[in-house]
Amino acid sequence: MAKINILPAQVYNRIAAGEVIERPYSVVKELVENAIDAGATEIEIYVENGGTQLIRVVDNGSGIEREDLQSAFAPHATSKIKKAEDLENVLTLGFRGEAVASIASVSKMTIISRCENAKCYSLTSDGGKLGLITEAAGEKGTDVRVEALFFNAPVRLKFLKSEKGEEAEITNFVSRFILNRADIAFSYYVNGKRVLQSFGGGDEEAFVCVYGAAALRQCFKIDAEKHGIRIRGYIGNQNFSKPNKSYQSLFLNGRYIVNTTLSAAITNAYSSYLMKRQYPFYVLHIDLPGEAVDVNVHPNKADVRFANNQIVYGCVYSVISAILDGHTKALDYLVQEEKPAEEPTQKPVEKPVEKPVEKKKETKKQEEIFPQEEKKFGFATFTYEQALKELEQTSPAFAARKKDGDVPFKEVVKGYFPVSELKKETQEKRGAEKLHEQFPDLFFKKTSFGVEAPKAQETKQEDVFAENKRFLEEIDKKKKQNRIDIRTCRYAGKLFNTYLLYEREDEVFVIDQHAAHERLVYNRLKEKMENRKIVKQPMLVPYTIELNAFESEFIREQYDEIRAMGFDIDEPEEKHFRVSAVPTDLLGLDLYVFFNDILGQVSSFRSIKLEELLKDKLALSACKAAVKGGMDLTRQEIDALFEMMDGDMGMKCPHGRPVVVKLSRVELEKMFKRIV
Predict the structure, then answer these.
(1) Residue 343 class from Cβ within 10 Å (0-12 exposed, 13-18 middle, 19+ buried)?
(2) For residues 212 and 408, what is the distance between their CA atoms, to the nearest angstrom?
(3) What pLDDT sits at residue 206?
(4) How confident is the model at residue 52 (pLDDT cuts 50, 70, 90)?
(5) Phi/psi class of residue 203: alpha, beta or left (left: φ > 0; alpha: ψ in -120 to 50)?
(6) Of 4, 34, 329, 620, which sits 20 to 30 A from 163 (CA to CA)?
(7) CB burial class (10 A; 0-12, 13-18, 19+) of residue 349?
(8) Are 324 and 273 spatial neighbours (Cβ–Cβ below 8 Å)?
(9) Among candidates 200, 156, 212, which has minimal Cα distance to 24?
(10) Backbone angles phi, psi at 232, to 5 degrees
(11) C-alpha to C-alpha distance for 394 and 541, rounded to whole angstroms
């Protein structure tokens, strides 16, 4: 009996749907991308019950001809590419031909389409089973209806979010489509109510439609080109940040992506301006040659791979850091606002151009991967190909690694030789082991992260659960070892009115009185916060918060926890929240900072607890209330503090500093050279 089965279309389409169609937002994403690829200038999106009951996308694009209508439902059927070589330069949003077949296999789907100067036709699929093509009434373009999503995949339905949660995901993607294609008019309706609308009037109009005019005033508008890579859009100024990453949008060659190389370049450029738990705000469009990027690396095309990460990272980082740091180069990158004709235009004050300091030829810093652009008059321009060539010339390691995967040069007595040649020569004449003893860092292995020295011997693979169990046992053992019986300790004095000394057998414990008391006060405040009685105080002027769809859904999910803290919160208007009462013991709380801390948990799975949100505030209160270093404590106060520690010698202050340092008699005798 044969064991290998050839799966029917209905089965492998369902499997593909598991990768391509994760949730309702995936359906909206694929259908809107198809509409954009069809040349639509107006797109309407309708969603009901979080997308599970209905998702409808209507466009005025080129439409689908009658003879192609049935093929549109077939797997791997697409008009975007014809041959394998086309994958090397993909310019459309869709190209695999999986989306329609995958959606149709897990829903009841109908496509109504009409091409210009042709009749309108309709075709329906019920879980992948096609009906008959019939004439219908419709305007030029395509009308796609997806109903009863996942009706034949009940397991997938169980893992969906609430209706509001799925709507929030869809709203986020529609917002990014508006930001991405500012030349297209979008209308987005949820349960019959219009939520978003743009008119195709350009980038500024699209930005205001999604984020509002207030956010626009806090941003720099940029349009830069470097090494053949164009970077344009909006970035928040040095003081404009957000508590989470939901306000970050990256578009590469017209496609929304989430990419670590680009996000790291932007975040690192902002690093000196961001406070803890704050993230940059940006809407950036990056265009580079199609052959320099591979979009066929992720099931839903959410990520890409660059031919050279160094060039892309360097270009993005240098442009954004120049703007934030106020470098003279920023004048070439910023888009200047157009002033009314009647107002005289003022010339910008010219800053003296500093002469570049001449560097010695033999020194080459790591950041000098790219050629020096700054010149007396303006900047040199390089294409992507020229920048790549320059990188290979200035970094031979890059060129050789690309060729054979070896680190190319190593300094030896004879000069510089390729590692591959050295390996061959030494293995024949002296042997690899002998050379390795002489040059222990000579041989390298290539990994996905670059190069690294080989390990002396491979470690044995152990059961990960056994390793975790052993690690937890060690932590528990260490805690027990750090706790002592205080009755076995004898007070030995103090140093500088700050450090208390307690002796125990052959050990001495040096205790920081401020850190110890600070930790004890912090524990007491935290316990008090956990067991507090809630008394509310109504506010004369309610505090209002305007959030995006993702944050709004998160706040709705946390209503019970926020109200349990003592806050009265409601949503009088879509995505606008109102706090009308606060707990009396938190009357002086900065609500802006407090709710920013809550929204900072939006991507985590931890439950929101008041004592954790107010950790910094409690730590500050404990620090102020604790005895200070240099304060002369009485013997009675010292003994009371030591008793409160209850023998916990592994204690740390709320800021992470150690409370106790242990010294053994052996360590002291080594200091005085009594023993060696």
Answers:
(1) exposed
(2) 53
(3) 94
(4) very high
(5) alpha
(6) 34
(7) exposed
(8) yes
(9) 156
(10) -140, 160
(11) 63
Q: Which residue has 């180069």 as its token pair? A: 329
Lowest average pLDDT, out of 105-119, 250-264, 284-298, 461-475, goes to 461-475
Estimate the share of the chain in helix, then strand, then coil, as percent rounded to the nearest 5: 40, 25, 40
Bridge partners of 411, per DSSP, are: 416
- DSSP of 169-234, one letter per residue? HHHHHHHHHHHH-TTSEEEEEETTEEEEE--S--HHHHHHHHH-HHHHTTEEEEEEEETTEEEEEE
User: What is the CB neighbour count within 10 angstroms for residue 370?
Assistant: 18
pLDDT digits 0-9 by tens, 3-43: 665 656 666 555 555 556 888 998 999 899 999 988 999 99
Tell me if 241 sits within 8 A of 274, measured CB to CB. yes
- Asked if 514 contacts 672 with a C-beta cutoff of 8 angstroms, the reply is no
Distance CA 514, CA 522 (A): 12
CB atoms within 10 A of CB 90: 20
Instruction: Yes or no: say if 584 and 535 are a contact pair by the CB < 8 Å rule.
Output: yes
C-alpha dist (Å) from residue 671 to 143, 512, 664, 668 = 84, 22, 11, 5
pLDDT for 232 equals 94
Burial (Cβ within 10 Å: 0-12, 13-18, ≥19) of residue 521: buried
- Per DSSP, the residues of 338-380 read PPPTTSPPPPPPPPPPPPPPP--TT---TTTTSPP-B-SSSB-
Provide the H-helix boundaries in 379-482. 384-394, 396-404, 419-429, 432-438, 464-482
Burial class, 515, CB count within 10 angstroms (exposed 0-12 / middle 13-18 / buried 19+) = buried
Q: Report the pLDDT value the prediction gives residue 464, as an integer from 0 to 100.
A: 53
Which residue type is seen at 289?
P
- As given in the structure block, the two tokens for residue 313 are 């990272």
**Structure token digits, residue 532:** 């507090």
Dist CA 370 CA 284 (whole Å): 23
The answer to whether the CB of 228 falls within 8 A of the CB of 382 is: yes
Q: Which residues pair with 121 in a beta bridge?
A: 113, 135
8 A C-beta contact, residue 25 and residue 173: yes
For residue 310, the surrounding DSSP H or E stretch is: helix 309-324
Residue length of the chain: 676
Tokens of 271: 């690093």
CB proximity list for 205: less than 8 A, separation 6 or greater: 182, 198, 199
Give yes or no for a contact between 235 and 222, defined as CB atoms under 8 angstroms apart. Answer: yes
Strand partners, 193: 190
pLDDT at residue 365 in the model:
40
Rounded Cα gap, residues 322 and 340, in angstroms: 28
Q: Give per-residue pLDDT as tens, 244-257.
A: 998 999 999 888 98
Kind of pairing, strands 282-287 and 248-252?
parallel
Residue that is written with structure tokens 């031979």 in the block: 396
Q: How far from chain centre, in Å, is Cα 426?
A: 47
Backbone phi and psi for residue 226, each to the nearest 5 degrees, phi listed first: -145, 125
